[in-house]
Structures are given as C-alpha cells and as structure tokens.
Write a structure and sequence with these properties.
four-stranded mixed β-sheet; binds guanosine-5'-monophosphate; 188 residues; 41% helix; five-stranded parallel β-sheet
C-alpha cells in the first residue's frame, strides 16, 4: 500500500503561514491541506468548511470525547483541532497532507506521528511579527496581546522541529519548504 506523508507547518500567529500555504498549494495542487475545526468566530470573509469548520464549544468537546481529533489545543481563548478521518484517508491514499497548526498541536503530532516532517516558520524579528499581527487589524486588542504573549514562547521552541524557515522573503521561504517536501526521503 502507498503511504503518504504528514507535514506539520507551525510558527507564531501572524508569521505568514497562511500566505506561504496558499502559494504552496497553488504551485502543488496535489498537496492536501487539512481543514481544522475551531470554536473561534469567523473573521470577515471566512467561509465555513473552507477556512475552518466553525463549531460551538459543546460540539468541539464532543469531538474530543469521541476521539475525532488527531490533535487539538486551546489558543488565545479558542479551541482548534485537526479532524482525524480525512487526514488518515488521504495519507492511506498516498497523498502528502499538510497541517497548519500552533505549537501545542504540533508537539502532539510529533508524539503520535514521529515520522511527520515538522517545519517551523520564524518571523524576521519579533518587532516585525508585532507589526504584522497589528496590521491584520482583525482581532481585538485583547486578542492581539494574547497572541503576542504566546508568540515569544512559540519562537523559543523552533529548534524542536526538523527545519526552521525565516519568512522574510516569500519566494525564498517557499523554496526552502519545497526543498524539504520534495527532497528524496532520507530515513529519519
Ligand atoms: P487563527 O485564529 O489566526 O486562524 O489561528 C490561530 C492559531 O491556531 C494559528 O497559529 C493556527 O496555526 C492555529 N491552528 C489552526 N488550526 C489548528 C488546529 O487544527 N490545531 C491546532 N493545534 N492549531 C491550529
């Protein structure tokens, strides 16, 4: 049976993981991006089932209890998790599956799927990260402050992952991710 690969892309909120992923998927439509479940309210323009599956906290808790999530974590007051079944199905079909998740969830995947490739995206500097989070201007000041506090502790954990990519230049960062994804598999 062909078995696909699991790729975990992590890094602080605002570092540009979403932009990197969109470009990566445009260039490699064969990749499968997992759609997470969250209790966070949709931001303007976000579509249910596309950006996230938006659920209530009770529905989320039910999914946790029933073992439907591959990993989950609480982030800035909301819960986020990866639905297990689609990921397992895609991997069993030989596809390369991407998870775009925060640090706690990425650590859980490192435990349960040690063969997963972990990619940590770093900001050019913490000041630049603050600028990016603030200029997104979609979150309340309270949410921004929680995200900034979390960002520093996430950056400190970058070394736990297989590769670290600084997102200062989109093309360069993409190139490094592509190298890691499509390089011949070395036993790890
Ligand atoms: P946002 O609210 O900005 O969309 O996401 C906040 C954080 O949650 C981001 O760092 C994002 O990577 C992370 N996240 C999104 N989906 C998941 C998930 O399924 N599991 C975990 N652990 N984190 C997630």
């Amino acid at each position: 049976m062909r078995t696909g690969k699991l790729i975990v892309l992590t890094g602080p909120s605002g570092v540009g993981k979403g932009t990197l992923l969109r470009s990566l998927l445009q260039r490699h439509p064969e990749l499968y991006l997992s759609t997470s479940v969250t209790t966070r309210a949709p931001r303007p323009g976000e579509v249910n089932g596309q950006h996230y599956f938006f659920v209530s906290r009770a529905e989320f808790e039910q999914m946790v209890v029933e073992g439907e999530l591959l990993e989950w974590a609480e982030f800035a007051g909301n819960c986020y998790g990866t639905p297990r079944r689609p990921v397992e199905q895609q991997i069993n079909q030989g596809r390369c599956v991407l998870l775009e998740i925060e640090l706690e969830g990425a650590r859980q995947i490192r435990q349960t799927f040690p063969e997963a490739l972990g990619i940590f995206i770093l900001p050019p500097s913490m000041l630049e990260l603050e600028f990016r989070i603030r200029s997104r201007a979609q979150d309340s000041e309270d949410a921004i402050l929680r995200r900034l506090a979390r960002a520093q502790s996430e950056v400190d954990a970058a070394h736990e992952f297989d590769i670290q990519v600084v997102n200062d230049d989109l093309d360069k960062a993409l190139g490094r991710i592509e190298d890691a994804l499509f390089a011949p598999t070395v036993s790890r």
